[in-house]
Amino acid sequence: MTDFAIILIGAILVNNFVLVQFLGLCPFMGVSNKLETAIGMAAATTFVLTLASVASYLVRTFILVPLDIEYLRTISFILVIAVVVQFTKMFIDASSPLLARVLGVFLPLITTNCAVLGVALQNTTKSHSFLESSLYGFGAGVGFSLVLILFSAMRERLAFADVPVPFKGAAIGMITAGLMSLAFMGFAGLI
Amino acid sequence: MQPITSPHAHSKNSTANVMQLVLLATLPGLIALTHFFGPGTLYNIVLASITAVACEAAILKLRNRPVAFYLRDYSALVTAVLLGLALPPYCPWWVVVVGTSTAIIIAKHLYGGLGYNPFNPAMVGYVVLLISFPVEMTQWAAPRAILEEGQSLMGPVSALARIWLETPVDAYSGATPLDLFKHLDGQTVRQVYDGEALFREGRWAGAGWEWVNLGFLTGGLFLLYRKVFTWHTPVSMLVALGVMAAPFYDGGSSASGGSPLFHWLSGGTMLGAFFIATDPVTSATSRRGKLIFGATIGVTIYVIRNWGNYPDAVAFAVLLMNFAAPFIDYYTVPRSYGHAKARPGRGTP
After folding, report:
1. What string of DSSP letters covers B197-240?
2. Is the minimum CB–CB distance between B327 and chain A shorter than 8 Å?
3. What is the pTM of this model?
4. Nearest-by-CA chain B residue for A175
5. Alpha carbon of B181 to those of A12, A185, B303: distances in Å?
6. From CA B239, how far away is CA B251, in angstroms rounded?
7. Interface pTM (ipTM) of the complex?
């Protein structure tokens, strides 16, 4: 039980994918201009992260390891992630048009989110079990969502700030993310 | 809307006035720090103030803003004084200068100056220093009460030498109460309280530290009385810290995390609760928002103090919640009188 709590806290706070490991920065900077779209993106990414870490675990254990072709893991994980995202998109399109409209273009974009590949590869290097892999993927998604949503609320406010011209827009966003990263270092040692 | 009729009450609660009150309210804590740890904090504050005013003036000049007008609101001085109080006494001069210039230039003016900064400038300066120079930032002077026979606090001249020339004076640095609780090494709380001079000479939470915190509490209550801020943030923060500490006190066993009283009166608790977390720019706005904001700071402080790497956590906790404050505001828009419940983020429809 504590093992699972440690994996969750580690993935959400201590080794936060965005602010500590610097993975998934592209959607973090790109989709954080409005809070509502950020929430949609966060939900979709969490879903894909969990599903992709489960799928990549299955591929590794039942295909790569028995055939002794583990050196192909990066390329096969990329394939798995693309399939998972496409499958999710088809499933949501068919089952819930409303959710599909909310997530819109963000769903296919997740394919290129390096946090997803990062989770799959880290599950391999940390040799997580099936349950641990899915928890780690879920925790990574929750950590990503937390930071993305808080950051987008802050950027809505920054849009009205009297920022010096050279620092407007993405520049001040980067500085803010850097300061946040500093604050997240306070969680070091929790696990 | 009913127009406001005369007599037009005039409040002199301008920014400068509030900032002067805050400066005044830091006095009891400053006096306690100087009495117990020597003149180091005074030098910190002087050096930080000079740096802050110089940086502020330079940036305002660069941005073609009226320098004298903005300098007269005292906000740069408040940042400098709060950072100076938080820094360890007798830390090298460049620590103070780097911290203050980071606070004023990066945390304040890159965002557009006073009123726009999302993070508390003094705490940004502190955290940048703590992460960049951990050795200098974790050496605290030993308080007056536990100095050995024949030792005395550093005088003004030897303190200056320490700050500018970094002459090594090992005897004067000691562990803080929070450091001691980080490494109980199987001792019970009673054993630590009896064994360590720092606790033996103190009444509740370590010699010197308890009075420093009581000093900041006094200043904070004065600000509360003068209505500089409302009670919501400091009270919810202190209550949350106490509520977290109570179950993990564990009857004072060797696994104890310290009593609520210990946590209230050690480290930067009171300075954080009354002077840092109440910053109107970087905290949540509504009353409900302030309660959430303060309580989460209290919980985070306890979590990092007890299970994290860093001995004190006020700066980290405040920065983390500064980050969350716009989100809290978004979902705690108060209902204005005569209107339906507000929708998140948009105010009353």
Report:
1. HHHHT-SSSSTTHHHHHHHHHHHHHHHHHTTSS-SHHHHHHHHH
2. yes
3. 0.90
4. B106
5. 27, 21, 14
6. 19
7. 0.89
